[in-house]
Amino acid sequence: MMDLRHRLADRIPTHGAVSMVWVIAAAGFIRVLAEHWREGTGLIGGALLVGAVARVLLPDDRAGLLAIRSQAIDVLCYLGFGLVMVILAATIPRTPFIQG
């Protein structure tokens, strides 16, 4: 597993993982601003889940800004918040925000 993590880290730039998370989250925020609440919230939750996977796969020195605390705490937080966001997205009703 350790060898796989280092081989993967050699292929991804230091800030590549966090950049990918930011791009997905930004797309989610754009969808929310465009009043597509379900898709936007799902993308934001998906960004957190991608961050959790990246935090597991990348060694601490290559995780960049995804490494805030210990790996276990980071993965637990990213997975927990990501799952909550995805479940929240699944429960948002399909009605327009502004009804008039």
In short:
This protein is 70% helix and 0% strand. It has 100 residues and is mostly helical.
How would you describe this structure to a colleague?
With 100 residues, the protein is an all-alpha fold. The protein has one domain (2-91). 70% of the residues lie in helices and 0% in strands. The protein has 4 helices and no strands. The protein has helices at 2-11, 16-33, 37-57, 71-91. Helix 2 packs antiparallel against helix 3 (37-57) and helix 3 (37-57) runs antiparallel to helix 4 (71-91). It is elongated.
Task: Map the helices and strands.
Layout: H1 2-11, H2 16-33, H3 37-57, H4 71-91
Helix pairs in contact: 2-3, 3-4
Low-confidence stretches: none
What oligomeric state do these chains adopt? Answer: single chain
**Can you tell me the number of structural domains?**
1
Per DSSP, what share of the residues sits in E-state strands of 2 or more residues?
under 5%
Sheet/helix structural class: mainly alpha
Inertia-based shape: elongated
Characterize the biggest β-sheet. Answer: none
Strand/helix succession: HHHH
Helicity level: over 70%
Number of strands: 0
Number of helices: 4
The end-to-end distance, rounded to whole angstroms, is 56 Å
